[in-house]
Amino acid sequence: MAGKPKLHYTKGRGKMESIRWLLAAAGVEFEEEFIETKEDLEKLRNDGVLLFEQVPMVEIDGMKMVQTRAILSYIAAKYNLYGKDLKERAWIDMYVEGTTDLMGMIMYLPFQPADTKEKNLALIIERATSRYFPVYEKALKDHGQDYLVGNKLSWADVHLLEAILMAEECKPDVLSAFPLLQAFKGRISNIPTIKKFLQPGSQRKPPTDEKFVAVVRKIFNI
Fold first, then answer.
1. Per residue in 98-143, pLDDT tens?
2. Among 64, 102, 186, 201, which is least packed by CB within 10 angstroms?
3. Are 123 and 113 spatial neighbours (Cβ–Cβ below 8 Å)?
4. How far is residue 120's CA from residue 139's CA, in Å, rounded to a whole number?
5. Are 102 and 128 in contact (CB under 8 A)?
6. 45-54: long-range contacts at Cβ-Cβ below 8 A with a sequence spacing of 24 or more?
């Protein structure tokens, strides 16, 4: 029997967090090997296990996978969270790309200069409520189903819940104008595997703080 997937990344959210979410939603136990110093990263690079000298890297099914999108789509397909046909997969991809864009804005906020943070936070809220969340609200309204695609839990649902919770960390009432997304959040949060991941003590990582920003800058020399 194959061992548990092993995740190589820093001790924070970053680009690995969506991978943690998807594995957890699929009910897959995983191990983590944290990169805590510049030397840890250099060792991985020198060992030749990072295809493009970058992390995240996930050891799974005998592969050392890199590139976030490739890792996520592999996990989604492997654990039946990627639709039943090509069209469903295309919709899942489109929805995921939207939430990836939004989460990317939030992810980089703590790394931005202090004097631009307020402006960038306002932009995140504006984009979330005018560009991104209306799309998902309309999708749920148009088909009247519990999930975004194919009336079945998919990668798109997991990703959207992650994005919603990140946006709520920026503005707690960000969903106030989106009743269907509020209900969606409640439903998806109560799926047993996801509910477990949302409990204290899970492998979910906390929001990025200044201390972690300093660690990341040191490791990646940024």
1. 999 999 999 999 999 989 989 999 999 999 999 999 999 999 999 9
2. 201
3. no
4. 27
5. yes
6. none
Backbone CA torsion sign across 124, 129, 130, 135: positive
Going by C-alpha positions, the residue among 79, 76, 70 that lies closest to residue 89 is 76
Which residues neighbour 39 within 8 Å (Cβ) at sequence distance 6 or greater? Answer: none
Residue type, 221: N
In the numeric block, the tokens 């039943």 are attached to 84
Residue 66's DSSP bridge partners are 57
What is the Cα–Cα distance from 20 to 206, expressed in whole angstroms? 13
Residues for the chain: how many in total?
A: 222
Predicted TM-score (pTM) of the model is: 0.95
For residue 10, what are its two tokens?
A: 């820093």
* DSSP H stretches of helix in 26-152: 38-46, 68-78, 86-108, 114-127, 133-143
Give the tens place of pLDDT for each residue, 66-91.
Answer: 999 999 999 999 999 999 999 999 99
